Amino acid sequence: MTEAERILLDLLNVERLEVDLFRGTGSGGETPTRIFGGQVIAQALAAAYRTVDDRLCHSLHAYFIRPGDPTIPVIYQVDRARDGGSFTTRRVVAIQHGKQILNMSASFHIKDEGWDHQHPMPDLDTPESYPARTELRQKYLDRVPERMRSELIRERPIEVREVDHLDPFNPAVSDDRNQIWFRMGAAASADAKTQHLLLAYASDMNLMSSGMRPHGLSWFTGEVNGASLDHTIWFHAPVHFDNWHLYAMDSPWSGQGRNFNRGSIYTEDGVLVASVAQEGLMRRAQKKP
Prior knowledge:
Blueprint: H1 3-11, E1 15-18, E2 21-24, H2 37-49, E3 56-64, E4 74-83, E5 87-96, E6 99-109, H3 133-138, H4 146-152, E7 159-162, E8 178-183, H5 192-202, E9 224-235, E10 245-255, E11 258-267, E12 272-284
Helix pairs in contact: 2-5
């Protein structure tokens, strides 16, 4: 297990303060200036899971209300909305500085039976056919200020390989289809609940950039004032995140200062394990005088 993987697993191990009150670490995620959205979602789901027995999450719906402060912990308050015969519902509020930064509803379902179908996975080359994220970022070191270089190439827990990589400093206008392969080796020993937490964390990676691709934008161009507004995940099948998964994303719409993005997550052999949707803020950045 790498140090980055250990840090992520520790982040997902929220501390119980009271029966339905938990505390999570704010620092250590993907981004240094604010808490990575996937981190808050995964910790909120971890808190909810601590109040649920023998059922797995099948869907969650989260709203990002304020930016998270990575310098202090996050408090998660769980409301046991319903414990039914087949479904369990939880509402989780994440709090910093006495204010909500996220609220989330999650639903948990017994193992059930029904009819099966799914859309097929896109036909792509194997993950090893594409360069690793660490290799790509090394190419751009001389294009960022020296103070930011260590952050750019810092070891990350999730291994990522982009299918159609764009230069982040000069991205070409491109199709909104945005696909990555990702996995985390240390997930091999994780239980089913932790697999969900890891996938929830990773589901916020690269998603909003789908809506930037048709406009030749990226987080590095300085033209976008952006943030995730909400995030939804539906879990369909067992997750084993130590294996490669394809995250096939697209953005069917942007307008009015927002963009809408969606994703399908498949195992390498084509099983659809989760679907994701997110709306993000995509305003024009104000130029400094």
